[in-house]
Design a protein that fits this description.
300 residues; Cytosolic phospholipase A2 catalytic domain; eight-stranded mixed β-sheet; alpha/beta
Length: 300
């Protein structure tokens, strides 16, 4: 029903925001491979004929959000993600292209164990559709990073796009921090895992998608050091999200079914998409309910 109503408003299922039609903005949260579920959300928005007036993202949400902001459809992103991430040979080939050209390049900045250059990785893995700058995107995008020494959140919405989304996704101990604008930046989820507050006053309805999850496993088994590190980060992020929801919640807040997947389970892209497919109908119902509620309030 919503898709038909929005299409009738301006004769298409594309741009939303004509007179009398509702507007939406979308915040995509961080969560590593769990964030592949955002693709189902984009497909649902496409099916509803909703083109967001603005997008915000943190970590994997910044990456997926950049694809949508660049004009990619949910189907485009799905096909690209499966083709790129589901095959070990394809991943190995792309990582091979990232090898240092010389020993000088390898050790020029000192030996950094388990710290990969995420900006180089993104440039080798993301589609050519994504432009170099925020200004060349089709939909306004804001991503969040964390200023390591400044001890504060840093929203980024202009200039070089790749360094911004790299900073937003620079998970500590896995990716090296990103230097940008005289700051040392790390994972945006540290301060703002689901940046729906970036979208205040950007649309009538803000949709926020949380894929952070939490530690899962057998209570009788001690977690490994890596599992404990990622699990502790998830607990911290859920605490931040809970606080923000109490103070200024978005119109729609949803959590796809992704808790059983690990932060680095990118090879399981097809399973993540299958298991989180229910978010599509959940989002459609939430959009319908939000619009119906506002219409009833206006009639009172």
């Amino acid at each position: 029903m919503i898709a038909r109503d929005l299409a009738d408003a301006d004769g298409s299922t594309g741009a939303i925001g004509s007179a009398g039609t509702p507007t939406f903005a979308v915040a995509f949260g961080g969560g590593g491979a769990r964030g592949l579920a955002h693709i189902n959300v984009i497909e649902a928005l496409d099916e509803l004929g909703i083109r967001p007036t603005a997008i915000s993202g943190s970590s994997i949400g910044a990456i997926i959000g950049a694809g949508m902001a660049a004009g990619m459809s949910g189907r485009d992103i799905r096909e690209y993600a499966i083709a790129t991430l589901s095959r070990r040979a394809e991943i190995a080939a792309r990582l091979w292209r990232l090898r240092p050209a010389s020993f000088g390049e390898m050790f020029g900045g000192g030996i950094r164990l388990s710290q990969f250059n995420i900006e180089k990785i993104l440039r080798n893995f993301l589609p050519d559709t994504i432009p170099d700058t925020f200004e060349d995107l089709q939909i306004p995008l804001s991503v969040t990073a964390t200023d390591f020494y400044g001890q504060q959140e840093v929203p980024i919405a202009e200039g070089d796009l790749y360094s911004a989304i790299a900073a937003s996704a620079a998970i500590p101990a896995l990716f090296r921090p990103v230097r940008r604008d005289d700051r040392i930046l790390i994972d945006g989820g540290i301060y703002n895992p689901v940046p729906f507050d970036h979208l205040k006053d950007k649309a009538q309805f803000v949709i926020a998608i949380d894929v952070v999850g939490g530690p899962e496993g057998d209570i009788g088994k001690l977690p490994s050091s890596i599992e404990a590190m990622f699990g502790a980060s998830q607990l911290m992020m859920q605490s931040i999200i809970a606080t923000r929801l109490r103070t200024d919640p978005p119109a729609i807040f949803l959590r796809p079914s992704v808790v059983k997947f690990g932060v680095l389970d990118f090879l399981r892209v097809e399973q993540v998409l299958r298991d989180s497919a229910g978010i599509k109908d959940e989002l459609k119902r939430a959009v319908d309910a939000a619009i119906t509620y506002v219409e009833h309030k206006e009639l009172e």
